[in-house]
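re: ur msg from earlier - yeah i can do the pyridoxal-5'-phosphate complex, just paste it... oh wait u already did. ok heres what im feeding in:
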Amino acid sequence: MLYKSTRNSQLRLEASQVIAQGISQEGGLFVPETFPDLSQELPAFLEMDYSALAKEIFAKFLTDFTQEEIAACVDKAYTPEKFGDPCPVKLVPLAENKVLLELWHGPTCAFKDMALQILPQFLTTALKKVGGGKEAVILTATSGDTGKAALEGFSDVPGTRILVFYPRDGVSPMQKRQMVTQEGANVSVCAIQGNFDDAQSSVKKIFTDGELNRVLAEHNMLFSSANSINWGRLLPQIVYYVYAYLELVRKGLVSLGEPMDVVVPTGNFGNILAAYYGRKMGLPIRKLVCASNANKVLTDFIRTGTYDRRREFYATSSPSMDILISSNLERLLYDLAGEDSEVLSCWMKELAETGVYSVGEAVLNKVQELFFGGFCNEAGTARTIRELWEKEGYLCDTHTAVAVDVCRQYQREAGGSPVPAVIASTANPYKFSASVLEALGIVSGADDFENLRQLEEATGIQAPEKLRSLREKEERFSRVIPKEQASGYVLETLGIGGQQ
Ligand SMILES: *Cc1c(COP(=O)(O)O)cnc(C)c1O
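and the outut:
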């Protein structure tokens, strides 16, 4: 299978090139040329465990990887040591036809582990084919979850180094603690004076700095990214929707061929796009329910066909969804607009220059046929956490709560025949202890470890050891630098300083 770009339909690249490169040269996102049809294979898939299923699906898309390479990637990523069980995900049935798909059993307690544990394996395999034997230097700017998940994924992976920049004033104490205590000989973490945009712009500048890239090449290294638009992060997410459907069949909640709904708490549109791709490949999905928090740019888009980022930005209790530009939407629209890369380039240019674009009636009709968009504000998020705990004894995090609430809105509106709704549960509640405590009506404090202890006391549910043990871990990284010094820091860390 070959890949083209959303902004250049003529392009044809192999999977390894696409994964190594991350983003297309003209700024477009890589998409598969065609999608395999899985519908006839579902009966055979029923017999497979998670790893076997993942290997089957990856083999259809990574056609320039050997079977052995794909197997090695999967076997290194989804281990019981990292995910607590041979199966990395869990399905938990709730009342009223809702089923939570817990995606947060990995090392950092958030769903990004599902992709970021295997991306380093994909990337190093790809670089062996197209990287000329160079060492990959992963640069990441993070507002919290991604940085830690990338650090865990790349920690001690041969042939890679990873440098993470976080805004000194822009991450939670728990998130900071997770990053500065990171183990591994090839990892570095550094705080930037300023906010997330400062960290992000420093990293972008380093990526495009010609001189710096030349110096790296001289030392047999190249910059790479673990960004969420990389195809190597999207592909692993398709697998768990297929797996979830098969589990519903195995549990007798649907018969093979009958549909499910899928509900996803959405930020950058990556997770829900993977579900859409699953549907496109023949997975019986009736509706894709896109759940937003107060930053409801996607809800408005799905309802009106106009994407308008010119609006107030809210810092909410579900920070990983506080996003006004959902990059992966570009891939959906490319598909729905008949793979017309000129139209796509035009919309994306309008977005960049004016902050708004409209897709027109034909595309809007397709969007609405496939998707339901809804949002949940802060009060609704807290109420949902409390209700779920009091009525069903299930403790969920803020992001998952947004999805549960929007699922209810959808079910009320859809009426008709009940179809099981699989809701992506994207973080362990203890990752957001303060907000969850407040939702339960308990006053939280400034110390996240104290909040964690209080939440354990209030619910009787133990926090994951990975979070509890952070308190005792040694802090390895304490550097804080002004953003102008970021490139110097990179050279110094790589041991090739002096050239500046
Ligand atoms: C990243 C993230 C999301 C949003 O996922 P997208 O793929 O960006 O839409 C939702 N919840 C949590 C906890 C996350 O970390």
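cool cool. Residues 271 and 422 are 13 Å apart (CA to CA). ping me if u need the other ligands too
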